[in-house]
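Chain A, query sequence.
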Amino acid sequence: MAEWVASRHGWMLIDFPVDSGLAFLPAVASTGPRHAFYVRMTHWAAPDAWDVTVKPMDAAMSQEEPASRFRRQLLQVSFPAYD
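Chain A, predicted structure.
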């Protein structure tokens, strides 16, 4: 875990409910001209590209008996602190 934390030094991570995260992204993308910031936000191969990940959660995670039921729960947005 320490290696992963060190790799995220200087980066911000925000967790959203999926729908809220999907509303956040176009709101931020529409704030100005499509220059280097927009490219980092939208293109996975750009230097310092934003990372957007959907994190599934098991609804039965805290219970022993029920069968696992995974659903899209969180959308995690990771970006350089200077953005």
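The chain is about 30% helix and 30% strand. Helices lie at 2-7, 18-29, 36-42.
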